[in-house]
Structures are given as structure tokens and as C-alpha cells.
Automatic annotation (TrEMBL):
Keywords for the protein's UniProt record, in alphabetical order: Coiled coil
PANTHER family assigned: MEMBRANE-ASSOCIATED PROTEIN VIPP1, CHLOROPLASTIC, PHAGE SHOCK PROTEIN A
Recorded coiled-coil stretches: 26-60, 124-214
Name this protein carries in UniProt: PspA/IM30 family protein
Superkingdom classification of source: Bacteria
Length: 238
């Protein structure tokens, strides 16, 4: 498994896509994650096989050790029978040699199986370590993918807004808004002018009314005052 090679390639996905704009960083990262998951599945399966092989080898080693010990006991029992006269010494030695030969064979097999089991266990440890690295990188890059997706959404939205802003004046929208603003200002100025003209007319009318107002009542009062001073009494006063 080229674990670090794949990780490096995933790491390059965003750089190449952003700088060279040749590939989609989201798709590149998703593809890298799929490959990492495949690697993880393969590594897990391989680890399980190596683990099973180590267990089977240890069981075979234990069986060989038992066989070796059993043949060692048989050699002793055979020589005891020869000593007791149950079988001849020559026959006993012959059978004992065969038993001891098998004991050595099973002992040698047990040692070989022990070395194999140790090798399998070491391989299993290394594979388990690689599996942990794969898991850590999967978690890391899944988080990176979420962040990357969010960044892509934001960049697309920003790009769209900036594009609209860039094209706004090209469509004459700003110029149209400026003209509408000027038109409203002109209408407001015209309304104010009409209001001032109406106020001026009211002021003129009031001035004319004051000038044309009847002063007869005031004159009569002045006349009455003179008559009172001179002591002239009119019939009305009587």
C-alpha cells in the first residue's frame, strides 16, 4: 500500500485545482478518500488473515511441542520395559532411538513454527500500525473535505455576487438609478417652489385686505372723542 503517496496526492488535489484550475478539488479529494477507504478495507482484511495465520501457527507449534514431549516420554517407557525384561534390550534401544528421533523432529518443527509465529505477529503489528495511520488520515481528510465543500460554496457565492456587481453598470442599472434620483429631486424642488408661490399669494392677499379694510369705525371713534372734549352733545347722546 502506498499510503503516504495517496495522502500526498490528496493533499495536492486542492493545490492543483486552485492554482492550475485543471481539476475539481472536491472530486479529487473524494476520489482520494475512496482510495483510502479501499486501502483500509484491504489492510484490515490482510491483517485478519495474518492474525489468523499467527494463531494457527502458534497452535501448530504447541501441538509439535506436545508431540515432542510425548515421544520423549515414550523413549523412557520403552527403555523401562527393556529394563524389566518385557522386551529385549536391543529391541528397546531400537524403538527408543526412533522415539527420540521423532522427539527431535517435532522439537525442530516447534522451533521453526515458533519463528514463523513471531514473524506473523510482527507483520500483524506493522499492519495494525498502518491501519491506525489510515484511520487517522481518513478522519482528517473527511474533515478537510467538509471544510473544502464549505469553502467552495462560499467562493461560488462570492464569485456570483462579484460578477453581478461587475455587470451592474454594464446593464445601465446604476445610471438608471441616478436618473431616477435626479427626477425625484426635481419633483421635490418643483413641489417646494409651488408651495412658496402659494404662500406668497396668501401673503399678498392679506396685505391687500389690510390696505382695503374699512376705517369708518376708527374715524367715528376719533370724532366722538373730539365732541366729548368740546362738550358737544348730540341728540343720540341725549
Amino acid at each position: 500500500m502506498n499510503i503516504f503517496k495517496r495522502i500526498f496526492r490528496i493533499g495536492q488535489a486542492e493545490i492543483h485545482a486552485a492554482v492550475e484550475k485543471m481539476e475539481d478539488p472536491i472530486k479529487m479529494t473524494e476520489q482520494g478518500l475512496r482510495e483510502l477507504r479501499d486501502d483500509l478495507a484491504e489492510a484490515t482484511e490482510a491483517y485478519a488473515k495474518v492474525k489468523a495465520l499467527a494463531i494457527r501457527t502458534e497452535n501448530e507449534q504447541e501441538a509439535c511441542q506436545k508431540e515432542s514431549a510425548a515421544y520423549a516420554e515414550k523413549a523412557v517407557l520403552i527403555m523401562q520395559k527393556a529394563q524389566n525384561g518385557d522386551i529385549s534390550l536391543e529391541k528397546g534401544e531400537q524403538l527408543a532411538r526412533e522415539a527420540l528421533s521423532l522427539r527431535r523432529k517435532y522439537a525442530a518443527d516447534a522451533e521453526d513454527l515458533g519463528r514463523q509465529a513471531a514473524t506473523h505477529q510482527q507483520s500483524g503489528k506493522e499492519m495494525l500500525k498502518n491501519i491506525e495511520i489510515l484511520k487517522e488520515n481518513l478522519v482528517k481528510w473527511e474533515k478537510e473535505l467538509k471544510t473544502l465543500r464549505a469553502r467552495v460554496k462560499v467562493s461560488k457565492a462570492t464569485q456570483q455576487v462579484n460578477k453581478q456587481l461587475a455587470q451592474l453598470d454594464n446593464n445601465g442599472t446604476i445610471a438608471m438609478l441616478e436618473r431616477m434620483k435626479e427626477k425625484v429631486e426635481d419633483q421635490e424642488a418643483l413641489a417646494k417652489a409651488y408651495g412658496e408661490i402659494a404662500q406668497e399669494k396668501n401673503d399678498l392677499k392679506e396685505e391687500l385686505d389690510n390696505l382695503l379694510k374699512d376705517d369708518s369705525l376708527s374715524i367715528e371713534k376719533d370724532l366722538d372723542a373730539i365732541k366729548e372734549k368740546l362738550g358737544i352733545v348730540t341728540k343720540t347722546d341725549e
